[in-house]
Design brief:
This protein is α+β, with helices and mostly antiparallel strands. 35% of the residues lie in helices and 27% in strands.
Length: 346
């Protein structure tokens, strides 16, 4: 049972952003990206991957920031005396769901803590304005700080309000996969949530469904797209279900998210989540994935990197890697809902 907090009492207890010394969207994008490079956030492999598209990425960030904090915002904490700075960014993924990212600091862990507290304070105080119905963060299990801070979120908030999902993040060349005659794929549109909810509840859980707003009337993200379109950007979602033969029970699902290129440096804003039923035979996993990939490839015709960025579980990734996909890295998706904000804050 979700315990709804008394927000008026909470706001009396939390530190104000001004007291913490945090600022928002106060740097030029060029200056912010220089910080990312200075602290090593743009490590060689990542920098090499995005360098040819760096100006496009900067243009997308600049366009997003034209809407103030409605699509993208970053907070900064500066120590003028010691010339240190910390920063944390966030972009709007669904209508009320936000993704926190790019946590960096040139100084000691105190600055990192201040920027995190400042960002969380902002979200609590403005929870109904954007709105901030949920927040999530993606991190590598190899990142010790992120694992300590975000990896324990379920301990602080509980499983009713938070979840951590493990993924393999892989790249797929769509032309390596062809459709399979015994797998039928259907695209799901607004108004057909009932076809996906039961399947997602089993394989992703209720917190995931709530945060990704897959129980909402607008699963295609048209409302969010209208916001993005104000500055010539787009944000869309496409959902496909695969069935084996004449069965009416889902064998797999693909959830495609498309957004401005480079809004996240790992391209998670453009990921495709492939979920395969654990009830089907191992030999059928490839057929289901192949059919889904053949269906979603049309949504990636303009993706600049020339592949489909896929997140999936280990069982499915092993099959895809054996068929020519490439491993990028392991990731964990940490999600927490609005009702758990204060528990996480303290």
């Amino acid at each position: 049972m979700i315990q709804y907090p008394n927000w008026e009492e909470i706001e009396k207890d939390i530190i104000s952003c001004k007291t913490l010394g945090c600022n928002y969207n106060n740097l030029r994008v060029d200056d912010l990206f220089e910080i990312y490079e200075e602290v090593g956030f743009l490590y060689p492999e990542k920098k090499k991957r995005i360098l040819p598209y760096l100006q496009i990425i900067k243009d997308n960030w600049n366009n997003a920031l034209k809407l103030g904090e409605d699509v993208l915002w970053f907070s900064t904490y500066e120590d003028q005396i010691n010339s240190n700075i910390a920063s944390f960014a966030s972009y709007r993924s669904t209508y009320g769901g936000w993704v926190g990212q790019h946590l960096v600091s040139t100084g000691c862990p105190v600055y990192t803590a201040k920027i995190m507290i400042g960002a969380h304070t902002k979200v609590i105080r403005e929870r109904d304005k954007k709105p901030y119905k949920s927040f999530q963060n993606w991190f590598s299990p190899n990142n010790k700080y992120a694992s300590r801070v975000f990896g324990a979120v379920t301990d602080s908030i509980g499983n009713d309000l938070s979840v951590i999902i493990e993924y393999d993040y892989i790249s797929i060349k769509a032309d390596l996969f062809t459709n399979c005659k015994n797998i039928n794929v259907k695209q799901i549109f607004n108004g057909n949530n009932n076809e996906i909810t039961e399947f997602l509840l089993k394989y992703r859980g209720n917190v995931y469904i709530e945060a990704e707003e897959l129980n909402d009337s607008d699963i295609e993200l048209n409302r969010v797209n209208e916001i993005y379109k104000q500055v010539d950007l787009t944000r869309k979602r496409y959902i496909y279900i695969a069935y084996e033969g004449s069965s009416n029970k889902p064998a797999g699902m693909a959830i495609v998210l498309r957004g401005p290129f480079g809004l996240n440096f790992s391209n998670l804003e453009n990921r495709c989540d492939i979920i395969v039923s654990d009830e089907i035979e191992s030999d059928t996993v490839y057929e289901v994935c192949s059919a889904l990939i053949s269906s979603v490839k049309e949504n990636y015709f303009d993706f600049l990197l020339g592949y489909i960025p896929v997140v999936t579980n280990n069982r499915t990734s092993e099959v895809l890697l054996n068929k020519g996909a490439n491993m990028i890295r392991k990731y964990k998706q940490c999600i927490w809902l609005k009702e758990g904000y204060y528990s996480y804050y303290i």
